[in-house]
Amino acid sequence: MEVINGHKKWGFQGNPELIASSISVRGVLTKLMANRNKDEKRPTIPLGRADPTEFPSYRTTPVAPDAVADATYSYNYNCYPPTVGIAEARRAVAEYLSKDFPYQLSPDDVYLTAGCTQAIEIVVSVLARPNANILFPRPGYPQYEARASCSKLEVRHFDLIPEKGWEVDLDSVEALADENTVAMVIINPSNPCGNVFTYQHLKEIAETASKLGIFVISDEVYGHLAFGSNPFVPMGVFGSTVPVLTLGSIAKRWIVPGWRLGWIVTSDPNGIFHQSGFVECMKNFLDITTDPPTNMQGALTQILKHTKEDFYSKILTTIREAADILYDRIQEIPCLTCPHKPEGSMVAMVKLNLPLLEGIIDDVDFCMKLAKEESVIILPGVTVGLKNCLRITFAVEHSALEDGLGRIKAFYHRHAKKE
Ligand SMILES: *Cc1c(COP(=O)(O)O)cnc(C)c1O
């Protein structure tokens, strides 16, 4: 190979973290989609990713596109925004979240991001100093792991306990943390488990993190999508026990994941994020990254203020009924068990009982063959940290969900171990 100035010409090396590209949800789903039988006449049932926008029952409220149109046609939002977000939108988020808080958030506590995905990127990048480590849940949301590895931030995993409704194993949190631990992440309502933490459990998490001197990052992208017996309680309620970074977005509750609008909120009445220098560091990061589009920021105030209660409740009913269908149909498929009935988010974790199956070696094999034979897409558990489990999205049209679960049942009977 030609060598110029000591470099091999075109000798691409790349970031090893990206070449090693462990496992991303999108990467796995692309492989599953490609594995479908080309001659399949039946429609594909997408139970792999939580994006129900193609289904009429999950259409957003007209308040949302109206708000975007109003903001755009006002011509007031064609400028670059301030890197922290425009003032009125920050105020709107502070007011929206404060309704569930025992104290009032200030607009200055709010930083607007390009979806919750960028919120994760920002928070992880800001925390990633040399030798630091961070605690993530297992199972979890692999975007966190991917971001941490790109930032060379060491990851340690604590377990969520299925028998206890996927609560955090706080003993494992205590055992993992040391003087270099910077934060722990919780996702509530949970993706991938579909549970909702109780007030009491959140309080225990706050007390544990406070004792260990670590921040809590609470991913509440599914905030308010709780339809079981546990009401949604934001972690920021415990902001005076432990400093909390609340991450959120409009992607899930308003079902507009393509709109790329989210936030980071410092839920911290004692001002520890300011005193510790975290806020300054985060602002410096915001200055070198991109912002959510200004017209979307301009629309946010109307979206948060004018969305009607009946939109929220209609979506919640649709998702609750879907969760019921999933839970009931799973009972009829012997190779699957659902350890905890889903009560929040749009997804559930299901255990795969491999000994009941013939010629299926693991969860990935199950999902690949299911895609090929039935055109049903579900996510192998290993992608979210639990081998031989499956993550199933139930936020699809009810008829599609029935169809998909019927096909999984037929798949089971074809592959069941003979007595
Ligand atoms: C969907 C999701 C995100 C990303 O949200 P966007 O606003 O679409 O970027 C982050 N965290 C969890 C747990 C999610 O399910």
Describe it for me?
By secondary structure, the chain is an alpha/beta fold. It has 2 domains: 16-59 and 310-415, Aspartate Aminotransferase, domain 1 (Alpha-Beta Complex); 63-306, Aspartate Aminotransferase, domain 2 (3-Layer(aba) Sandwich), CATH 3.40.640.10. 38% of the residues lie in helices and 16% in strands. It has an 8-stranded mixed sheet with strand order 4-11-10-9-8-5-6-7. The structure holds pyridoxal-5'-phosphate.
Annotation keywords:
5-stranded mixed sheet, Aspartate Aminotransferase, domain 1, 419 residues, 15 strands, 14 helices, 8-stranded mixed sheet, 2 domains, alpha/beta, Aspartate Aminotransferase, domain 2, 38% helix, binds pyridoxal-5'-phosphate, globular
Shape: globular
H/E element string?
EEHHEHHEHEHEEHEHEEEHHHHEEHEEH
- Count of individual domains: 2
Q: In CATH terms, what is the architecture of the largest domain?
A: 3-Layer(aba) Sandwich
For the biggest sheet, the summary is: 8 strands, mixed
What share of residues is helical?
25-40%
The hetero molecules present are: pyridoxal-5'-phosphate
CATH hierarchy, class of the largest domain: Alpha Beta
Average pLDDT works out at 96
Number of strands: 15
> Termini separation (Å)?
61 Å
How many helices? The count is 14
CATH fold topology of the largest domain: Aspartate Aminotransferase, domain 2
DSSP strand content: 15-25%
Which regions contain 5 or more consecutive residues with pLDDT less than 50?
Answer: none
Rounded radius of gyration (Å): 22 Å
Judged by helices, strands and strand pairing, the structural class is: alpha/beta
